[in-house]
Amino acid sequence: MWVSGIQLESVLVQYYKRFFMYYIVKYSGPFGFIKPWTAVRDSETYSQQFLTPSIVVGIERKLFPQLLKNDDGEIKKIVGHRLTYKQISQQQEQIQPRGWNERGSKNNKSYERPYAILIRGVMIEPILFLAFQELKDAKLAVRQHICLSRNEDILYPNEEILEVSKEEFNANEELFSGFELVFEKSEQSFLVGYNRFKQSEKMFGYIKIVGNPIKSNY
């Protein structure tokens, strides 16, 4: 079948955009809360510097609820992200364990759930970029808000979708500075969680830092 030069050029452009272009949606808000993936204190994990796989999956399922059907826990539409913020404010939070402690004798029992205080790091003025390979996915995402772990910590989208190359998203320190946890296993990787969809299989990743991830102004 004969193919014209214009048709071939159109196919090549579509191929290039499909595999080498990202569609970026920018989210921002006054504050955000990143929950550690472990039960230990933030002083030990300091996980606010990156989004864990489970947080990215949660954001993706909020934006695309159809993925909840036959969910396997894999990230399917978000191909990259970048997180930056102005500062972290240490906040105290009162918690209670799920279980009850039994006290007293057989005839005079009481049950209690002791209180404890832990420190959470709350990000001030976070900015999150989400990258998609499909323009249709970015168009759906740009019409919705997202939450960073808790429903009250809402980030709102910028109405403009940025179309940039994958290379520019990974290298442009002025536009896309920040932290990104790359979900791959390499010499730089560390344990970032357990996959409950795959018999608690260990998940690994490494932190990529582009430019200055902590903003002094916007």
Q: Number of helix segments?
A: 5
Percentage of helical residues? 10-25%
Identify low-pLDDT runs: 37-41
DSSP strand count: 14
- Beta-strand percent range: 35-45%
What structural class do helix, strand and pairing data support? Answer: alpha+beta
Give me the Rg, rounded.
21 Å
Distance between the ends = 54 Å
The succession of helices and strands, N to C, reads: HEEHHEEEEEEHEEEHEEE
Q: How would you sum up the global shape?
A: globular
Mean pLDDT, rounded to whole units? 82
Largest β sheet strand count, sense and barrel closure: 6 strands, antiparallel
Keywords:
218 residues, alpha+beta, six-stranded antiparallel sheet, three-stranded antiparallel sheet, 14 strands
Secondary-structure topology with pairs:
Layout: H1 5-20, E1 21-28, E2 31-33, H2 42-45, H3 53-63, E3 78-84, E4 87-95, E5 101-105, E6 108-112, E7 116-124, E8 127-132, H4 135-141, E9 146-147, E10 154-157, E11 162-165, H5 166-171, E12 178-182, E13 190-195, E14 201-210
Antiparallel strand pairs: 1-8, 1-10, 1-11, 2-7, 3-8, 4-7, 5-6, 9-10, 12-14, 13-14
Your description of this structure?
The chain is α+β, with helices and mostly antiparallel strands. The longest helix has 16 residues, at 5-20. It has a domain at 19-164. The chain contains 5 helices and 14 strands. The radius of gyration is 21 Å and the shape is globular. Residues 37-41 have low confidence and may be disordered. Strands 1, 3, 8, 9, 10 and 11 form a 6-stranded antiparallel beta sheet that branches.
Short description:
The chain has 5 helices and 14 strands.
